[in-house]
Amino acid sequence: GAVVSQHPSWVICKSGTSVKIECRSLDFQATTMFWYRQFPKQSLMLMATSNEGSKATYEQGVEKDKFLINHASLTLSTLTVTSAHPEDSSFYICSAPRGSYNEQFFGPGTRLTVL
Amino acid sequence: AQSVTQPDIHITVSEGASLELRCNYSYGATPYLFWYVQSPGQGLQLLLKYFSGDTLVQGIKGFEAEFKRSQSSFNLRKPSVHWSDAAEYFCAVGARPEYGNKLVFGAGTILRVKS
Fold this sequence. Notes:
The complex is a heterodimer of chains A (115) and B (115). In chain A, 0% of the residues lie in helices and 55% in strands. Chain A is mainly β.
């Protein structure tokens, strides 16, 4: 149990286009989900907390108008990178908490390459 | 806010030798602590976790870690390293759910195994 999926697993897009990444909790419901970004050879950095039915909470320095987060249901959160640029190329990973300790279960990640 | 320090960026050990990866954290309360492993281009795999109770935690693949409150440490150990253990290892500290449930990752330690 506690499986989190992401789609797509990789995407290549042109500069200026928007890209949507989906994060789904397959066998449990999650009122919150988390989005992380990992640049090459770096650690994971929390970007935002996605809240079902309300606005996402963004970490300091993350542009909320560029990284649109929608938590439309208890099993789906989406991250849309708007007007993507090469510097947005990164590995994006989501997680969803479950259990009495709210342990976070991670998706497999989405590799975004912006040309 | 919590923080994590992994002082070793790279570690090289011989196959069959013992391993210890260091992790120090800063957090105002009793933390949740995790070790993850990541192979190149892959997602995160949870090795072990500490929430409460016994401070010596056993994980998968023969790994263990010990929570030492007095030293604010959660070092990862393995008695005999295999070539397949070569990867990047991340220590993470989690806030309790009532404090936002956020995970903060260390910078990571790259493990190289020489034959």
